[in-house]
Design a protein that fits this description.
Number of strands: 2
Structural class: mainly alpha
Radius of gyration: 16 Å
Shape: globular
CATH superfamily: DhaL domain
Low-confidence stretches: none
Strand order of the largest sheet: 1-2
Strand content: under 5%
Order of helices and strands: EHHHHEHHHH
Number of domains: 1
Helix content: 55-70%
Largest sheet: 2 strands, antiparallel
Oligomer: single chain
Distance between the termini: 13 Å
Number of helices: 8
């Protein structure tokens, strides 16, 4: 079973990964975006970390909804609303339970990813964060580590794609040949999920 501490670890691990990879995310974004993806997410997840330390939510759902609210209020551009929607919808889907199963998390995360698709009007193959998140949802039923690997592969697979949504879509053919920064950061989020599972010693999803 996965409790609030697990979800807290997930968000802290995500913040650490974003902090570590912020320069790379911004470098990717400089090629096809506004060159601020890493900087914005680093600020947002630092805010998430601070809020979680201050409030110490007691249920998985509240951990994620709090994190989502922080991202919406502190991350500029499209990333704040998209990541905020992902986490808030996932948290809402988990409800008020003090513990959830890996299967329940997989279902809730799927609802969160679907909400991201609705908000951004994107789908698989559009060269967005969904290209990492959708394969991850499919693989979550197997294990957290399988989801991590699927998200990594999905992010890498955005390189040859033509961007159809977001800032990168303005570049047309010039967007081809660059890895999507949103898919890359989404893969970090999923990798942090596997890391949180391993760090907790639960082995619930791996």
């Amino acid at each position: 079973m996965l409790d609030a501490d697990f979800f807290h670890r997930w968000m802290i691990a995500t913040a650490a990964a974003v902090d570590r990879e912020a320069d790379r995310l911004t470098e990717l974004d400089s090629a096809i975006g506004d060159a601020d993806h890493g900087t914005n997410l680093k600020r947002g997840f630092a805010s998430v970390t601070a809020a979680l330390e201050k409030e110490a939510p007691q249920t998985p759902g509240v951990v994620l909804t709090l994190a989502g609210r922080q991202l919406v209020s502190t991350v500029g551009g499209a990333s704040g609303p998209l990541y905020g929607t992902l986490l808030r919808r996932t948290g809402k889907s988990l409800g008020e339970a003090s513990e959830v199963t890996a299967a329940q998390l997989a279902e809730a995360f799927g609802a969160g990813v679907a909400a991201v698709g609705q908000l951004g009007g994107a789908q698989a193959g559009d060269k967005t964060m969904l290209d990492a998140l959708l394969p991850a949802v499919d693989a979550l039923g197997v294990s957290f580590s399988a989801a991590r690997d699927a998200a990594d592969a999905g992010a890498l697979a955005t390189v040859p794609l033509l961007a159809r949504k977001g800032r990168a879509s303005y570049l047309g053919e010039r967007s081809i040949g660059h890895q999507d920064p949103g898919a890359t950061s989404a893969a970090l989020l999923v990798a942090a999920l596997a890391e949180a599972d391993t760090a907790g010693g639960e082995g619930s999803g791996s």
